[in-house]
Each structure stands twice: as structure tokens, then as C-alpha cells.
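Run: sequence + heme C -> complex structure.
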Amino acid sequence: MRPVYVALIFVAAGLLLADGSLSAQHATAFDIEDGGRAFRNTCATCHGPDGDQIAGIDLGRGQFRRPFTDQELVGIIRNGIPNTPMPATNVSEAQAVKIVAYLRSVAAARRSGAATGDAARGKAIFDGKGECSTCHRVNGTGSRLGPDLSRVGQLRRTIELEQSLREPAAEVLPANRFYTVTVRDGTKVTGRLLNHDTFTVQLLDAKEQLRSFVKADLREHGFASTPMPSYQDRLNSQETADVVSYLVSLKGARP
Ligand code: HEC
Ligand code: HEC
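>> structure
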């Protein structure tokens, strides 16, 4: 975890203590992290990775239909809300306390800033100035070189999307890794690694062609860094917020 997040979590834990709320007494950074994991596993399917997918409820910003105490939230998590689609879950009391600590901590971090973006402007940047579609595909248009982003808003949290733009190399999913091979005559080919075994390697190259190589015929081969550039200096903070809003809106086709 990066130090800045750790710091945020401690600040958040401090705010909880000031509230005198129940989860506060024991919430450590590890509890909060654990709560985040439980949230993604148990709650995100309905509430979304940022907790704002159900109209009128924004769990990640601490926006409820009425103010709940931590104890009431623990009760809702464990028992559900009768006569509504909010189900009882089988998480333990201790786990529910950690989920609440996590929700309070993200809400506190959110209050501390970040420009709000405009998804329509973000889409214009994605297809235009940002040149994102030269590598990424959304709902059937764009390139296959980078991962398909049609559902990225369903899969990733806002904070992770921001990080992908600022520091693309910081966290690369195994399925998205790049690989470079050097053939006998010295030509290098870099592409998304589709598959490799003891003897062969298959890549999707920059022209989106499937390329297969026999390792014994190669001069060199190995993992390459991501071709995605950092947008830290290419987009200002408003533009970044706009692009992130657009990414957050990409939830794939509704079933
Ligand atoms: C099967 C889908 C589903 C799952 C899983 C689910 N929820 Fe809900 N949740 C809902 C729905 C729908 C509502 C709105 C209920 C209503 O109409 O009042 C809701 C309401 C809530 C509320 C009340 C918000 C308010 O302002 O009234 C909280 C808090 C909440 N959920 C937290 C959670 C947490 C935390 C988890 C994971 C432990 C979770 N939910 C899992 C569907 C779900
Ligand atoms: C030169 C090609 C290239 C360009 C241009 C590019 N990307 Fe990427 N992007 C990639 C590749 C390759 C990956 C996968 C490796 C990684 O995570 O860095 C990636 C990863 C990502 C991820 C993480 C996906 C995940 O599932 O975790 C996001 C989000 C993303 N890009 C958004 C964007 C946006 C938005 C833009 C434009 C502002 C952009 N990219 C421009 C190639 C590119």
C-alpha cells in the first residue's frame, strides 16, 4: 500500500475516534483494509465498487437515506432491511464492524477533496486529446492492444482508476502484462502476453495481430513495461476527474 493511503486511513481512523463510535475503538488500518475486501466481496455486486449504484444511496460518501449510527449499520449489514431487496448477509459481527469502519474511512477521504468530473467531457477526452481509444476498446469500438474498458466502472474503484491514469505501471493485472521478444535477426516485437509455456509464447502485437514464437528460436524474451503513458502531466486535474467519471460510468451492458 502506498504511504499516502496509509496516512489517509490513519486520519480516517482518527476521525472515527473523535466520533466516539463503536467501530472506532478497535479499527486499525488492517481492519479497514479487511473491511474493504469484505465490502467488495459481499456488497459491491449490488451497491457497486464505490457504493453508489443504488439510487439515493452513496455508501462511499456516507450518504444514507437517514443518518445511521455505526451500530445501526452493523444491524443492517447482518439482518438486511425487511421488505426491501437489501438482504441479510452472513458476515459476522466483527466483520460487519470492519465494513462500517471501511465505509466511514472512504467517506472521510472523499470529503477531503478531489474535483468532481463530468462523464460527457471525459468521453470526449477519451476519444480525442487523450487518445485512449488508440489502445482501449469500449463497447465494441477502439483498439484491442490494451484491456477492454467496457466494464471497468464495475470492476474498479475510483481511486484505482485515478491511479491507473497517473501511474499506469504501479499495478498491472496479470492478464494485462506486456512481453518483448527479440528474434534472431534482432527485430523486437512487443505485445500483450496472451499465453506462454515452456516452449512457445503468444502475443497480440501493436497491429492487433496474434503472433506466436518458439522460445528456442529467440535471442531474448521477457516481460516489458506497460506501454500506457502516465497522464499526470498530460491532463490537468479537472480533465483527469472528467475521464475518471467517464470510466466510472462504464458498467457494461445491463443484463
Ligand atoms: C442483493 C443486493 C444487495 C446486497 C448484496 C447488499 N445490499 Fe445493501 N441494499 C440493497 C438495496 C436494494 C438497498 C435499498 C433498500 C431499500 O429500498 O431501502 C440497500 C440498502 C442498504 C443500506 C441502507 C442505506 C439507506 O440509506 O437506507 C445500507 C447501509 C446497505 N445497504 C449496506 C450494505 C452493505 C454494507 C452490504 C454488504 C455487507 C450490502 N448492503 C449488501 C441491496 C443490497
Ligand atoms: C499506448 C497504449 C495506451 C494508451 C494511449 C492508454 N492506455 Fe490505458 N492501458 C494500456 C495497457 C497496455 C494497459 C494494461 C497494462 C497496465 O495496467 O498498465 C492499460 C491499462 C489501463 C487501465 C487499467 C485497466 C484495468 O483493468 O485495471 C485503465 C483504467 C486505463 N488503461 C485507462 C486509460 C485511459 C483513460 C487512457 C487515456 C487517457 C489510456 N488508458 C490510454 C494501454 C494504453
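>> summary
The pocket of heme C (ligand 1) is lined by residues 42-43, 45-47, 54, 57, 59, 64-65, 73, 76-77, 81, 84-87, 89, 91, 99 (CB under 6 Å). Residues 1-25 have pLDDT under 50 and may be disordered.
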